[in-house]
Every structure is written in structure tokens, then in C-alpha cells.
Write a structure and sequence with these properties.
CATH topology of the largest domain in chain A: MetI-like fold
Number of strands of chain B: 2
Helix content of chain A: 55-70%
Structural class of chain B: mainly alpha
CATH topology of chain B: MetI-like fold
CATH class of chain B: Mainly Alpha
CATH superfamily of the largest domain in chain A: MetI-like
Structural class of chain A: alpha+beta
CATH class of the largest domain in chain A: Mainly Alpha
Order of helices and strands of chain A: HHEEEEEHHHHHHHHHHHHH
Strand content of chain B: under 5%
Oligomer: heterodimer
CATH superfamily of chain B: MetI-like
Distance between the termini of chain A: 56 Å
Number of domains of chain A: 3
Largest sheet of chain B: 2 strands, antiparallel
Number of domains of chain B: 1
Largest interface: A-B, 93 and 94 residues
Radius of gyration of chain B: 24 Å
Number of strands of chain A: 5
Distance between the termini of chain B: 39 Å
Largest sheet of chain A: 5 strands, antiparallel
Strand order of the largest sheet of chain A: 4-3-2-1-5
Chain lengths: ~350, ~300
């Protein structure tokens, strides 16, 4: 009997504890998602609504009845709750051309004349897209990403194969030398890299964004580790059967390494898509400028059109976010390993 | 094995690594001893760049700002991510969902993240000042506030005097720190979760049978067995934090570097010297070398510490 009571008490305490855990986790979830929600919400507001404080969560337009069916969009200057009136000003720009307002200056009217409607201004996305060569930026980023991924797969599998399967003088020392390069952060060598690219005449070209990144030491390392787990017997047998060394890599090693290759592809795509400092330094013109640098420029030039900036931010992250929701497990795993450099 | 064949397989990666990694890294070292303006070498100057660097108050300020940033980001990020990971590890329903959401900012580009947060921190129209007003507080200038936070707290408490040296990081820098923690926490949570799931259940069962409280279980079982992971998270967060650039470049200013230069971190200073202000690349290389020495020292120091302290 006593035992049961104790158990019930224990369970109740445990239940309360679990409830607290859920509360804490959900507070975190809200903090993580509010900025995204806010980005989308802002991106669908009118330039007038942006200026409202307190801000609205869901994009809303205020419309004042001008008599009959005629509504005109207004900006709310202040609200007097006790008197039941609002002071409004004509909205500078409006979506409905019919509502050329007969309103001049600020007016105070009865609350009931003004009503709110949810109004999602999708045209912000079109406007933002057209205000800067975003199509070009998108194209550049996709092109650069494709070439970098292809290049990384090519150079890494060959090098990893050599490091894992071949015996040659200084192999392990070269490998360690390669690995030690990984420890040097990019800002340390960006200045000399710039000079090298100047000497090659590559500044402001696709080569500058692609070629230096098609060898990825960490990918070589990952693939080499995986290749080493494939038994030697398999290799010997294949070679005796007349399989060439390259054919063994192509027909047996690579198909057996699909999971690692997928991880390499994912972190290469994410890294290339989001890279910023390098393309910022190495490009000057919109012709080769990738999306992230274009977006940064757009944000610096826009200054005040927050709705357009948020729209641009949203369509710039959209491809990766969509991909993330389809393949979150692989993406999380891949990015987690890619950080595991030490 | 024919060495020529091996060389052939190594060639594509090798050429790239040599030209775009080894040569630049070596050159960074060499360049710091030369006077280089706009990509043109003007002569050997020995240690003059370093002598100038160590007398450059902006450089020391950028080091100080970077240190504030690292000290602000690393412990809080570590604590919060460990906390969330431990919560998520309590066999919660929907773990996959939670992990996905916490990790979302890691996939999002830093440029977009910086833009969104700059808007959230907007001094007049921002979401954060709206929350403050709901709580009955006044609005803050956030990214445009050059005053140190300790000084602001002191003046908030009504003290009219506060020593200049103890003003602390500017509120602008604190705002940048908040964003960095928000962006990076998901990554650390995933790493911690993996570490937690590697701890065998037997240890927990044994502790429970012995009647250990959950606090004891955490400090006697989880914490020591998790130490390699904790160490890894500590190291990687520190190294990444020392290289902060994008958020500073996009969130603070204009001029970049924040109000009164209070967010000018070392990588931004390097960028400014090397590419913006007349392209003094020799000087920028000297800055780069200092950054490299800091990161290298940290790596070696922490590695040494781990060998002694971490339980495997």
C-alpha cells in the first residue's frame, strides 16, 4: 500500500518534471522560429505597414470607408480607445488604383469607419527580384555550386584512393601535411589568395569562385577513411581478375561509398551556397557575383525598404530550406560530420 | 606500386591544394615582412609591420572586441546547447521535429540571418523593442548603441560615475553575440545529442539502482562521460568565433565596425586593411598571422588540456 502511494507521488513529480521539460523546449522552439516568421510576415507587408509601431504579426491593411463601397487605405496615426476614435492619414501608396483618396491630411474619425483586413503583398517578392539582378545572382550561385560539387567529387575520390590503397614514398607525410592545411582558417590566407588570383587574371571570374574550391581536404579525409574499411582481399581479387585500378575505384569503391559521397555533396552544396567572405573579396561585378554577395549589396543599398529586404532574404534561403525539409536527417548528419574536423 | 600512377591520382587535388592553400598560407607569412600596397610588393621591411601593429590602438581594440565576442558567445552557447540537448535526450516525443527546428538556422545563410536580425533589432520599429515595451521597458538602440553594457547597467542603477576601462562590450556587440548564439546553437545541440546517445544505458541503470538523484547522475555520469564532446564543442565554437566577419559586416554600421568602432573585430580589421583602405596587404598579413597564432595556440593548448582531463 505504502509502496503504491510512493509510486504515485513519484509519478506525479515525474509528470510535472516532464511538463517543465516540454515548456523549456518549446520556449526554445519559439525563439528559434520567431525570426523566420518575422521575416515572412515583414516580406508580405506594405511599405506603410512597416512603419507601424506596435508592429502587426499578420500583414494587415487598414481601410477607411469613404461612403458606400468605396474604401481607401489609411495609415493609423493614433487610436483613442476611450473616445472610440482613430486618427488616420492617407496611405502614401495603395494597391487598389480605384481608391484615389479624397482624404487630405490627418483626420479623426469614428472607429467603426476603419476596418482591418489581412493583406498579403506578394508583389514585394517580384519587386525585390526586379530591383537587383537576382536572376543573374541565382544563376551564378547554381553554376558555381554545380562545378564545385563535381570538382570536389572528382579530385577527392582520386586522391582518397591514392592515400587509401596505393603505396608510395612519403604517402603518410603528405597526408598529414594535407590535414594540417585544414587547421588554417580562411581569413589567414585570403590576402595572398587575392594576389594569386590577380596574377592569374581571375579576379571577377567564375574560375575565382570555382577552381580554388574544387579540392576539399576534409572530403579527401572522409573518403580515405571509408575506402580503408573496404577489405584488401576484394581489391586483390579484382586486380587478379584483370580489373584495372581505375575500374576498381569507379565500379566498386565509389558505389560502396554512396553514403559518404552524399555527405560530401551536401556539405559542399551548403558551404558553397552560403559562402560569403571569399566571393565578396574576389568579385566586383554583377556578372559573376553570387547570390549571398548580391543579397548583401541589396541590403546595403536598400537601407529602409525592410519588406523588400525580407522578401529577398526569403527567396535567397528558400532552396536550401526546402531541401532541408525534405532531407533533414541527411543534411544534419552531413553538416555535423563536416564540422568534425579535429 | 608505380609511383607515377599514384602521382597521377593525387595530381588534381594536389595541384589545387598547393596553389590555393599551401602557397597562400606560406605567402601570408612572407608577406607580413614586406610592404605590399594594392598587390604590388614595394620592399622588404623586416619586422616593421609587426612593430607598427603592436602600437596600433585600433588593432588592440579589435583584439579586445573579438575577445569580448568569443567570451560572450562560447560559454553561453555551450551551456544552452548542452541544456537543450539534455532535455531532448529525455526520450521526448517528437525529438526529430525539435532537432530539425533548432538546426534550421545552421542551414540558413549568415547574410539572410544578419538581415533579419538587423530588422528585429531596429531601434524604432524593431520587434525586440516592441517586446521590451510590452514588458514595460524603454526602447534600446541595440546595434546603434556604442555604450558599454556594464556602464549602461551602472547608469541604470543610478550611478553617475563608472570607470571608462570597465565599460564592457557595447550593446551593439551584445546584439551580434545574441545572433551568433542563435545561429550556432542547433549545431552544438546535434553534436551534444550524439555524444549523449553514445553513453551506454548501463551506467544510468547502475546509478539509478544505487539511488542516485538526477543531479548526481548528471554530474557523476553524464558530465564526465560527455567530456570529449564538450571539449570538441568548446574548441570548435571558439575557433569559429574568432573568425566572425559576416554578421559584423552586415549588421553593424554604416560605417561597418559599428557605432564608434565598437564592433570592429579582428577579421573585419584585416579585411579593411587589406582590401578597403588602400589595400595595405603586408599589414593585413601581419594581422592574419596574429589571428593564426591565436587559433593555433588555442588548439594546441586545449588539446594538451584534454589529454589530461578528458575521460574516455
Amino acid at each position: 500500500m505504502r509502496d503504491v502511494e510512493l509510486n504515485a507521488g513519484f509519478r506525479a513529480r515525474r509528470g510535472a518534471g516532464r511538463a517543465l521539460i516540454y515548456v523549456a523546449v518549446w520556449v526554445g522552439i519559439v525563439v528559434m522560429t520567431v525570426p523566420f516568421f518575422w521575416m515572412i510576415s515583414t516580406s508580405l507587408k506594405s511599405p506603410i505597414e512597416i512603419l507601424e509601431f506596435p508592429p502587426t504579426w499578420v500583414p494587415t491593411g487598414h481601410y477607411m470607408n469613404m461612403g458606400g463601397d468605396e474604401w481607401t487605405e489609411v495609415y493609423i496615426v493614433s487610436r483613442d480607445r476611450e473616445a472610440g476614435t482613430v486618427t488616420v492619414r492617407p496611405a502614401g501608396r495603395t494597391d487598389e488604383p480605384s481608391s484615389a483618396s479624397s482624404l487630405a491630411g490627418e483626420t479623426t474619425v469614428d472607429e467603426s469607419l476603419v476596418s482591418d483586413r489581412i493583406r498579403l503583398r506578394f508583389q514585394n517578392y517580384v519587386e525585390a527580384w526586379n530591383q537587383a539582378p537576382f536572376a543573374r545572382y541565382y544563376f551564378n550561385t547554381i553554376l558555381v555550386t554545380l562545378f564545385v560539387v563535381a570538382g570536389v567529387l572528382f579530385t577527392s575520390s582520386l586522391a582518397a584512393y591514392a592515400f587509401a590503397r596505393m603505396k608510395f614514398w612519403g604517402r603518410d607525410n603528405i597526408f598529414v601535411l594535407f590535414l594540417s592545411m585544414m587547421m588554417v582558417p580562411q581569413p589567414v590566407y585570403i590576402v595572398p589568395s587575392y594576389i594569386i588570383l590577380v596574377k592569374l587574371g581571375w579576379i571577377d571570374s567564375y574560375q575565382a569562385l570555382i577552381v580554388p574550391w574544387i579540392a576539399h581536404i576534409f572530403s579527401i579525409f572522409l573518403l580515405r577513411q571509408h575506402f580503408k574499411t573496404i577489405p584488401n582481399d576484394l581489391y586483390d581479387a579484382a586486380i587478379i581478375d584483370g580489373c584495372s585500378r581505375f575500374a576498381f575505384l569507379w565500379r566498386i569503391m565509389l558505389p560502396l561509398s554512396k553514403a559518404v559521397l552524399v555527405a560530401v555533396v551536401i556539405f559542399t552544396i551548403v558551404g558553397t551556397w552560403n559562402s560569403f567572405l571569399w566571393p565578396l573579396v574576389m568579385t566586383n561585378t554583377p556578372e559573376v557575383r553570387p547570390l549571398q554577395v548580391g543579397l548583401a549589396r541589396f541590403s546595403q543599398e536598400q537601407g529602409t525598404s525592410h519588406e523588400l529586404m525580407m522578401a529577398a532574404a526569403a527567396f535567397s534561403i528558400a532552396p536550401l530550406i526546402v531541401a532541408y525539409f525534405f532531407a533533414q536527417k541527411q543534411i544534419i548528419q552531413s553538416l555535423a560530420t563536416s564540422g568534425m574536423k579535429s | 606500386m608505380d609511383p607515377l600512377t599514384a602521382a597521377l591520382y593525387l595530381l588534381p587535388a594536389g595541384v589545387i591544394v598547393i596553389i590555393f592553400r599551401m602557397v597562400p598560407i606560406g605567402s601570408a607569412f612572407v608577406l607580413s615582412f614586406f610592404d605590399v600596397k594594392m598587390g604590388r610588393v614595394r620592399g622588404f621591411v623586416g619586422l616593421a609591420q609587426y612593430a607598427r601593429l603592436f602600437q596600433d590602438p585600433t588593432f588592440w581594440n579589435s583584439l579586445g572586441t573579438t575577445s569580448y565576442y568569443v567570451i560572450g558567445v562560447v560559454p553561453i552557447s555551450l551551456f544552452l546547447s548542452l541544456f537543450v540537448a539534455v532535455l531532448l535526450n529525455q526520450k521526448l516525443r517528437g525529438l526529430g521535429f525539435y532537432r530539425t527546428v533548432y538546426f534550421l538556422p545552421v542551414v540558413t545563410s549568415l547574410v539572410a540571418v544578419s538581415m533579419v536580425w538587423k530588422w528585429i533589432f531596429h531601434p524604432r520599429l524593431g520587434l525586440l523593442n516592441y517586446f521590451l515595451s510590452l514588458l514595460g521597458g524603454g526602447s534600446l538602440q541595440w546595434l546603434e548603441e556604442p555604450r558599454g553594457v556594464f556602464e549602461m547597467i551602472a547608469s541604470g542603477l543610478g550611478w553617475s560615475w563608472w570607470p571608462d576601462g570597465l565599460a564592457g562590450p557595447s550593446l551593439a556587440l551584445i546584439a551580434v553575440i545574441v545572433v551568433a548564439i542563435w545561429r550556432g546553437i542547433g549545431y552544438n545541440i546535434v553534436i551534444f545529442l550524439a555524444g549523449l546517445q553514445n553513453i551506454p544505458d548501463q551506467y544510468y541503470e547502475a546509478a539509478r539502482i544505487d539511488g542516485a538523484s538526477s543531479r548526481q547522475v548528471f554530474w557523476r555520469v553524464t558530465w564526465p562521460l560527455l567530456s570529449p564532446t564538450t571539449f570538441y564543442v568548446l574548441l570548435s565554437t571558439t575557433i569559429v568565433s574568432f573568425q566572425v566577419f559576416t554578421q559584423i559586416y552586415l549588421m553593424t554600421g554604416p560605417p561597418v565596425g559599428g557605432p564608434m568602432g565598437t564592433t570592429k573585430v579582428i577579421v573585419y580589421y584585416l579585411f579593411e586593411k587589406g582590401f578597403d583602405a588602400g589595400g595595405n596587404m603586408g599589414y593585413a598579413s601581419a594581422v592574419a598571422l596574429v589571428l593564426f597564432m591565436i587559433i593555433l595556440t588555442l588548439t594546441l593548448l586545449q588539446r594538451r588540456l584534454v589529454e589530461r582531463r578528458v575521460y574516455y
